[in-house]
Amino acid sequence: MILTRCGYRCDLCLAYRPNITREPANRQELSDGWFRYFGFRIPPDQIICDGCMSDDPRLLDTECPVRPCVIEREIDNCAQCPDYVCGRLKERLVVLEELQARVGREIPPEDYQRFIRPYENKRRLDALRQGQVPAE
Q1: Element (H, E) at 32
Q2: Which H or E run contains 22?
């Protein structure tokens, strides 16, 4: 499991460089899936990410407010922060039930695995705060 600073899972993310290298055709599918569920679109040819834990990474979200904060605080991720859940993290929280309510329908299992599960970070961070390994 490779966690980002906000609790996303790089290893499950279709945009993560090793996953793109293995399956470059996923770029278009990911662009469409992000638009369908999160309302933003990144052109497929721009989809590749080294993960925010890397030194000098190529990132998709260059405006992320979480990464610089976690680095400045010298912690691994938001679960270790005394200000958990702050406004910066709230912008990045993904909770399946809230997402389903926003899109107004149940999310098919395949879409959940590809477009939601990698970013469903609230449960992961809560588990880490309680000293547990996230159940995944």
Answers
A1: helix 26-38
A2: helix 17-22
Q: Do 15 and 43 touch, CB atoms closer than 8 A?
A: no
pLDDT in tens, 42-51: 999 999 999 8
Beta bridge partners of 64: none
Contact call for residues 82 and 89 (beta carbons, < 8 A) = no
Q: How far apart are the first and last CA of the chain?
A: 9
Longest dimension (CA), the chain: 41
Is the distance from CB of 60 to CB of 42 less than 8 angstroms? yes
- Cα 80 to Cα 107: distance, rounded to the nearest angstrom: 31
For 91-124, the pLDDT digits (tens) are: 899 999 999 999 999 999 999 999 999 999 999 9
Collapse the DSSP code of 15 into the 3-class scheme (helix H, G, I; strand E, B; otherwise coil) and give the result: coil
pTM: 0.89
Half-sphere exposure of 77 (CA within 13 A, CB side): 21
The CA distance from 73 to 58, in Å, is 22
